[in-house]
Design a protein that fits this description.
The complex is a heterodimer.
Chain A (H helix, E strand, L loop, with lengths): L10 E8 L2 E8 L4 H8 L18 E4 L2 E4 L12 E3 L12 H9 L8 H14 L5 H8 L10 H14 L1
Parallel strand pairs in A: 1-5
Antiparallel strand pairs in A: 1-2, 3-4, 3-5
Helix pairs in contact in A: 2-5
Chain B lengths: L12 H6 L14 E7 L5 E7 L1 H5 L3 E6 L23 E2 L5 E7 L2 H9 L2 E6 L6 H5 L16 E9 L2 H7 L2 E9 L11 E7 L2 E6 L4 H12 L6 E5 L14 H13 L3 E4 L2 H7 L6 E9 L5 E11 L7 H10 L1 H4 L5 E8 L15 H18 L3 H7 L6 E2 L5 E2 L4 H11 L11 E11 L14 E8 L2 E6 L8 H13 L6 E5 L16 H28 L8 E2 L2 E2 L2 E2 H12 L2 E7 L19 E12 L6 E11 L6 H20 L5 E2 L2 E2 L17 E7 L21 H13 L2 E2 L1 E2 L3 H12 L5 E2 L13 E3 L14
Helix pairs in contact in B: 6-7, 11-12, 11-18, 14-15, 15-16, 17-18
Classes of the chains: A alpha+beta, B alpha+beta.
Bound molecules: FE2/S2 (inorganic) cluster (2 copies).
One FE2/S2 (inorganic) cluster binds next to loops of chain A.
């Protein structure tokens, strides 16, 4: 498949709610949410491992539900609440998941961490007392190559306990 | 010990959990141009012509370069300088880089790559070890090595091997195959370069800033002082970011040509082709044992499918034969190794570099030998364990060795000998060992392998070191060691790392060397700084220096700040330095440089699984792993390394494989290249064993690679335990299991694996005398 460039890329003005802030921007209509977050809003906490919907690294929350930002088109997300890792802490106080991940060594290279934190947050908001298998199920779409997952599971359990 | 040995959070934990850490692809300096690389669609072809004129005419394209812009060859090993950043004569694998474009947008760069017309003369590709051993149909892949497409031979013999076999009461031969697989770091490789005032600066997701620095200087033909390489926050390497890569050189060149920042981030598909991962290795092993279960001789042959270029391959080849002797006392040993070129992405170092494959073969082979003898495999292995403070037959110096204790821990915890035996359920055991850093540098020199500087002033303590934290926590180890010596907390230590302009050298994060080598350098620098502070406080207070305690942010009766003011007033600028050079312990023979390490880690593992005879599916229930890390500087990080290693070993054992069809990667995506998810990962119980190594910092050894090694063989032993079939080929897919069961039913050997080892024209072995019996093994340096 050949790449093509259309010189006159259609651009649209978007109004997005990102981490509780109303943002207005002019972007090419075909740009993914991942690209808009990273390139237009400089929210580089959202990472990517494939840009094809296969690794979960780019997970963000849309209205509280985990979604793959590499497969989402911002034009469809106007009026929806988008949460990225930058929106997890309140002020300089970390979210209990962030604290638990730091304390238990659940982030090694940290590249998968933003996506996993957000998937975990969505889970805990729905289910304050998830079993280990429920956590595994909820996070099955997020790959991590460093940790072997064990410390991530422990950190989510610790955070859940502290949040109750 | 106040901070050493404590399960403290990593010093960069907050940056990692908030998304603040800046990885290479997160950088976007003003006016950045985006680079895409045109890569070969053919596995083997001559380039007849390249026409870039149409690409250059596309609006937004700022520069296009081809091989003639970067003709100088490079490569990680001095003996195999066989790569070009862009090839203009010949391509050797699908994915070989040919041209590069810098444009204002990535899409424009990609379209411009498509507009480049390349005319090829397609050559017959060489796609297997067997094909590489044969006379090539068209031409050889590389113009060195040989005969045919053989890259490298190794042939060494230690002690009286024929005599050893003659002495044996039982001799067994087996053939094994370990399929290649890849690192699959979550972060795609990325690099950003600027060219300002005649100086190149490169930020990259590399494991080794120093080797990238050297390669850039060579290919760009600039003095090293005109180039600065900085390691960006690192999204995972596992060995896959240890070579200097074409894209790193290309963005630097494009920045020089355009005067603008240039960035290149590989697509996931390109990452699969960049590779440098686990070599596929075919192995033959023959061992003689006496009636009492002692090994009398061993003969090991390996054939590595190296892919198209040298990479670390010469070292990988040696490694397939080097460490067998570090776990088992083998009195006579012959090793014949061979690496071939094929038209596939080059293989290189992946976690365990060249040693997981022979470890898989060795452990399973001994397992089979034990069954032949009617011995418990654990017992047979135990009888042959190496002892601490010995020299192996191939002259490797073993100091601390926790094999016995590791074995005890996992055997007891798993109740291995009390397990219930029934069809479909099994347990398997294996051991292994790995280096704490290679004892010799990649390019020959007498300089230290790691250096650390410490500065103390009114702003606090800063430690400078070239080491690259790739997620394993090397920054935390440095901070912990400096903090321990200065009576502070790791968070009190500011770190400047992995920057060739501002930090003294460290050879990088590979071969599990950082804790041992940078750790020792940090320890030396910190102890010198501590001495200055103590001397200043002693002079001021009249206390005896030896009576001054340095802890809890105090130096004797002074606070740390007061002490540093006194010391700065007394000595001037407070800086100290430490360095680490490994002892010269390599044996007296050619090729002895691969294998020696200042210390070896040891691991033991038990895998418990259910295997379904109908479907061939394997479900791992639990893994017990014990790892002799010498001393855990941070047990939390050690556990993390062990768990991560076990995970990766399990992925290799069960599902990961890098295979090709007509030169094309069969599964160059994260969906199709299977790796374990949260759902696939069993419970792992980790035991940290501390043997207090005499030369490691506070007794520490490595943890990041060794624990991967015993997992594949332990898994295969467990499959045999469960179903009575041997799977002699990694990965253990359900098809292989059911096929082995079918053969068993038909009365054929109950096995799936390579039928035979090819005939390879290994040269006559170099005969090496083993170290003399009275050799002072522990102390001796040669
Ligand atoms: S980047 Fe991999 S799923 Fe989006
Ligand atoms: S921490 Fe590195 S990929 Fe998860």
């Amino acid at each position: 498949m050949k790449n093509e460039i259309t010189r006159d890329v259609e651009r649209v003005v978007l109004a997005l709610d990102v981490n509780g802030e109303a943002r207005q921007l002019l972007v090419a209509v075909h740009k993914t949410l991942l690209e808009v977050l990273r390139e237009d809003l400089q929210l580089t906490g959202t990472k990517h491992g494939c840009e094809l919907g296969e690794c979960g690294t780019c997970t963000v929350l849309i209205d509280g539900r985990p979604e793959l930002s590499c497969l989402s088109l911002p034009i469809q997300l106007q009026g929806r609440a988008i949460t990225t890792v930058e929106g997890m802490a309140s002020g300089s106080e970390l979210h209990p998941l962030q604290t638990a991940f730091a304390e238990l060594g659940a982030a090694q290279c940290g590249y998968c961490t933003p996506g996993i934190l957000l998937s975990a947050r969505a889970l805990l908001e729905e289910n304050a007392r998830p079993s280990r298998d429920e956590i595994r199920e909820a996070l099955a779409g997020n790959l991590c190559r460093c940790t072997g997952y064990t410390k991530i599971l422990q950190a989510i359990e610790l955070a859940a306990e502290r949040m109750r | 010990m106040k901070v050493v040995g404590k399960p403290l959070a990593k010093v960069d934990a907050a940056a990692k959990v908030t998304g603040r850490a800046i990885y290479a692809d997160d950088m976007l300096p003003a006016r950045t141009l985006h680079c895409r690389i045109l890569r070969s669609p053919h596995p083997h072809a001559r380039i007849v012509s390249i026409d870039t004129s149409a690409a250059r005419r596309i609006p937004g394209v700022v520069a296009v370069i081809t091989g003639s812009d970067l003709p100088v060859k490079f490569g990680i090993l001095p003996v195999t300088q066989d790569e070009r950043a862009l090839e203009h004569e010949k391509v050797r694998y699908v994915g070989d880089p040919i041209a590069a474009v810098a444009a204002t947008e990535e899409e424009i760069a990609a379209a411009a790559c498509d507009a480049i017309a390349v005319e090829y003369e397609v050559l017959e590709p060489v796609m297997s070890i067997e094909a590489a051993l044969a006379i090539p149909k068209d031409e050889r892949i590389q113009d060195y090595g040989g005969p045919n497409n053989i890259h490298k031979f190794v042939s060494l013999e230690f002690g009286d091997v024929d005599g050893g076999f003659a002495r044996a009461d039982n001799v067994r031969e087996d053939v094994f195959f370990f399929q290649g697989n890849t690192h699959l770091p979550m972060e795609q490789h990325s690099a950003v370069a600027t060219y300002i005032d005649g100086r190149v600066t490169l930020w990259s997701s590399t494991q080794v800033v120093h080797y990238v620095h050297r390669a850039l200087a060579k290919v760009l033909e600039l003095p090293m002082n005109r180039i600065r390489v900085i390691g960006a926050a690192h999204g995972g390497g596992f060995g896959g970011k240890t070579d200097p890569f074409a894209h790193e050189i290309i963005v630097a060149k494009l920045a020089m040509l355009t005067g603008r920042p240039v960035k290149c981030t590989l697509t996931r598909e390109e990452v699969f082709y960049a590779h440098r991962g686990r070599h596929p290795v075919l192995m033959w092993i023959k061992t003689g044992v006496t009636a009492d279960g002692r090994i009398s001789a061993m003969h090991f042959r390996s054939a590595l499918d190296g892919g198209a270029y040298g990479s670390y391959g010469v070292a990988s080849t040696f490694y397939t034969g080097a460490l067998q002797t570090v776990t088992y006392d083998i009195p006579a040993y012959r090793f014949e190794g061979c690496r071939v070129f094929t038209n596939k992405p080059p293989c290189g170092p992946k976690r365990g570099h060249g040693t997981p494959q022979p470890r898989f073969a060795l452990e399973l082979h001994l397992e089979k030998l034990a069954h032949d003898l009617g011995l418990d495999p654990v017992e047979l292995k135990r009888r042959n364990f190496v002892k601490p403070n010995t020299r192996t037959v191939n002259w490797l110096r073993v100091t601390s060795c926790g094999l016995e204790e590791c074995t005890d821990r996992v055997i007891k915890a798993s109740a291995f000998h009390q397990r219930k035996r029934f069809f479909g359920r099994g347990m398997g055991f294996a051991i292994s060992s790995y280096l704490s850093g290679a004892g010799t540098a990649i390019y020959w020199n007498d300089m230290p392998h790691s250096e650390v500087q410490i500065k103390v002033d009114r702003g606090g303590v800063t430690a400078f070191c070239g080491a690259m934290d790739i997620g394993q926590g090397s920054d935390s180890v440095l901070a912990t060691i400096v903090a321990e010596e200065l009576g502070l907390q790791p968070a009190d230590i500011r770190l400047v790392t992995a920057d060739t302009d501002t930090t003294p050298i460290d050879l990088g994060s590979y071969s599990s060397r950082v804790t041992f080598m940078a750790g020792n350098a940090a320890l030396e620098a910190a102890r010198k700084m501590r001495a200055l502070l103590v001397e200043a406080v002693a002079a001021k207070t009249g206390a005896e220096a030896s009576a001054i305690d340095v802890s809890e942010a105090r130096v004797g009766d002074c606070s740390f700040e007061e002490a540093s003011v006194l010391a700065e007033a007394r000595f001037g600028t407070l800086t100290t330095a430490g360095s680490y050079t490994p002892p010269k312990i390599a044996g007296p023979y050619k090729g002895s440089g691969v294998g020696p390490s200042p210390a070896y880690s040891y691991s033991a593992c038990v895998v418990d699984l259910d295997a379904d005879a109908r479907t061939g599916l394997i479900h791992v229930n639990k893994i017990w792993i014990a790892h002799d890390v010498g001393r855990a500087i941070n047990p939390l990080l050690v556990e993390g390394q062990v768990e991560g290693s076990v995970y990766m070993g399990l992925g290799e054992a069960l599902m990961e494989e890098q295979v090709f069809r007509k030169g094309l990667h069969k599964w160059p995506s994260m969906l199709e290249y299977k790796s374990p998810t949260f759902l696939d990962m069993p419970e792992v119980e980790t035991f940290i064993v501390e043997t207090n190594d005499p030369e490691g910092p506070y007794g520490a050894k490595e943890a990041g690679q060794g624990p991967l090694l015993p997992v594949p063989p332990a898994l295969c032993s467990a499959v045999y335990d469960a179903l009575g079939v041997w799977i002699d080929e990694i990965p253990v897919s359900p098809e292989k299991v059911t096929e082995a069961l079918r053969r068993k039913e038909k009365g054929e050997p109950p096995r799936y694996g390579p039928p035979r080892f090819p005939s390879i024209p290994y040269p006559e072995a170099i005969k090496v005398q083993p170290p003399p019996k009275d050799f002072d093994a522990a102390a001796a340096t040669i």
